[in-house]
Write a structure and sequence with these properties.
The chain is mainly alpha-helical. It is built from 23 helices and 12 strands.
Length: 611
């Protein structure tokens, strides 16, 4: 078995000596690492250590950072999912108020979450540049020309990764290369233009020199770099260029361990025991019980558990009514793209804990119950989900529970840990799929739509839907009653599916109904397939015409629909945040630049429009 790349703990002592420089508030206002102790770092061992330090931030967390890990994680649960209608913040309104401001679209540049996220992104950029600065100083012959090419390629991949992470939120961000240093006094770099082309160039250069496979899982390979190049091109609306790359990745791509990209069981993507499978294009590695006191776990999701059941804290990241309703299907098993909001799937909002409850019999896409915890449905292997008994504040957070980031009960002892000694079982080895193969197929479908190859686009979507239609991947365990009417004693038939699932394939609808329909169907498929994975906000933003996309006013339209759908639920859902949430077009399609960063740049950085 190939060794997984432990991002936090495999950092040599030479790098640890420099740890203080990475906790500085001004990440760009520092001397280059290589100039500090070259007699230690200017060797192959030193370069290895600095590169590992650069990789260690891919999860959005590093030791000594400003802010909490759940504010900065690469899973982007707040920025990508909560602020786009996949999920409510959860907990209660006063818990994590900065997240509540983001959820309500009322955040300003003073929001702490945003400042801390910015710092982590540019700490990663700095670490990647440190590798590039250090390599020319190695004069002892310990690195061959081919090794230099690979070091440079990995550093450029990481620099692209961190810049893309920033550009997704703010779009107008500074691009920092290795020439920007404290010594040169040129570290106040403006954000006066988009930098997609520079990020594309980093990924292209990385792809040219990275190997097809890597000795350690977690290191980027050629195909991961190409997939990220294509992703960046999608943000840049260069669909033809992205399409060429994506077809190559689909046909020839393989994981860092050498497995041909493929779609396995949907649930395997979210099971710590089956991570790094053939769908993993680039997987952010996490681990537990490795001597790091849980700090190598999936720190971004440390709050995102039901307040009872697994972990026992903290009640954040609760799926919305809108997201759950999206999984309703018609008699052919196709999504109700335009009418899914007409009525609600039966749920237990307002139904007290300990009360007998039976789910409805609506026709549903089978991916729902791997994406959301619902009362009366098996919650992984934890038994029938009890609903309100596990919800921290149901009137404010709703009846649904997160599940994609949660571990299985049978594997709790090996896949969970106490995060930093305080969050029992809330550190997990449930690695985050930054890009998985389904993502690639649906990008290709987007590109095919824009090329007006509608039947081809339908084929890509159907590859994803065929996996969802495979009954071997459906949740089993139908609630048939309660012994003696006792809600704590559910009766379950494990030979039956847990709900009334039906998933169908498109059969020519794309070509028959035209490009606008096909585009809408692809967009909706991404909502179903990738929901609760931190992508929705960024998809809506890049599709919207405000940012040059082909989707018209899709972002404001979809979020206003979500807000109306939420408020229409009635007086059993009393979220104070949702009552005041208001999306403003030509503003909330991007996040505000952190004011602290504008201040320390002496005004070089400019605020995004509308803030």
């Amino acid at each position: 078995m190939k060794k997984s790349f432990k991002l936090k703990v495999l950092i040599p002592a030479a790098l640890v000596l420099l740890g203080g420089s990475y906790s500085c508030k001004k990440y760009l206002d520092q001397a280059p690492i290589g100039s500090l102790i070259p007699e230690v770092l200017a060797t192959r061992t030193g370069v290895d250590g600095v590169l590992i330090g650069a990789y260690s931030v891919v999860d959005g967390v590093f030791d000594g950072q400003t802010g909490s890990p759940w504010e900065t994680g690469t899973d982007n649960w707040v920025y990508g999912s909560v602020v786009a209608g996949d999920a409510f913040k959860g907990s209660n309104p006063g818990d994590q108020p900065a997240a509540a401001n983001l959820e309500a679209f009322s955040a300003t540049g003073a929001n702490d979450y945003l400042d801390h996220k910015w710092r982590v992104c540019y700490a990663g950029v700095q670490r990647a540049n440190d590798v590039l600065r250090l390599i020319p100083q190695v004069k002892d012959g310990s690195i061959t020309p081919d090794q230099i090419k690979q070091y440079v390629a990995e550093a450029r991949f990481l620099r692209g990764f961190y810049h893309l992470e920033a550009a997704k939120l703010w779009k107008f961000v500074p691009y920092i290369d290795e020439s920007i240093t404290y010594t040169a006094n040129n570290y106040n770099v403006p954000n006066d233009k988009v930098i997609w082309d520079k990020i594309e160039a980093d990924f292209a250069a990385a792809a040219a020199d990275l190997p097809a496979t890597q000795p350690q899982i977690g290191r980027a390979n050629k195909w991961a770099a190409l997939a990220f190049q294509a992703k960046t091109l999608m943000y840049d609306h260069k669909y033809a260029d992205a399409y060429t790359i994506l077809k190559d990745v689909i046909t020839n791509g393989k994981t860092s361990s050498g497995a041909k990209y493929a779609l396995g069981l949907y649930a395997n993507n979210f099971n710590p025991s089956t991570k790094n499978g053939p769908e993993g294009v680039f997987v952010v590695q996490t681990s537990v019980h490795d001597g790091a006191n849980g700090l190598n776990g999936n720190a971004g999701s440390v709050l995102n558990f039901p307040s009872a059941g697994p972990a026992g804290c903290c009640g954040f990241f609760q799926p919305t009514f809108d997201f759950v309703n999206s999984f309703k299907v018609d008699a052919n098993g196709l999504p109700l793209i335009d009418t899914y909001q007409n009525d609600y799937i039966k749920n237990d909002q307002g139904v007290p804990a300990g009360t007998v409850f039976t789910p409805g019999d609506e026709l549903l896409d089978a991916r729902l119950d791997w994406s959301v915890g619902r009362r009366g449905i098996p919650y992984l292997d934890w038994g029938i989900c009890p609903g309100a008994a596990w919800a921290r504040d149901q009137p404010n957070g709703g009846p649904y529970l997160p599940i994609k980031n949660v571990y299985y009960k049978a594997a709790q002892s090996t896949t969970s840990d106490s995060y930093g000694g305080w969050a029992a079982n809330q550190s997990t080895s449930n690695s985050y799929n930054a890009i998985r193969f389904a993502d690639v197929l649906l990008w290709a479908a987007e590109c095919a739509v824009e090329a007006n190859e509608l039947s081809v686009a339908e084929g890509y979507v159907n590859q994803v839907r065929a996996r969802a239609a495979d009954q071997s991947g459906w949740v089993k365990g139908k609630l048939t009653g309660y012994t003696g009417g006792d809600a704590t004693k559910p009766e379950v038939d494990n030979t039956q599916f847990a709900a009334n699932y039906k998933v169908g394939l498109y059969t020519g609808q794309f070509a028959t109904n035209g490009q606008a329909y096909a585009r809408k169907a692809v967009y909706f498929e991404r909502k179903l397939e990738l929901g609760m994975e931190g992508h929705r906000f960024f998809d809506l933003s890049r599709w919207d015409a405000v940012n040059g996309g082909p989707g018209g006013t899709i972002m404001s339209t979809e979020i206003e629909k979500f807000l109306k759908n939420t408020r229409d639920f009635g007086d059993k859902f009393t979220s104070a945040v949702m009552k005041v949430a208001k999306f403003t077009s030509n503003k909330n399609e991007l996040y505000p630049i952190p004011q602290f960063q504008i201040d320390i740049s002496k005004g070089t950085l400019k605020q995004n429009k509308g803030y």
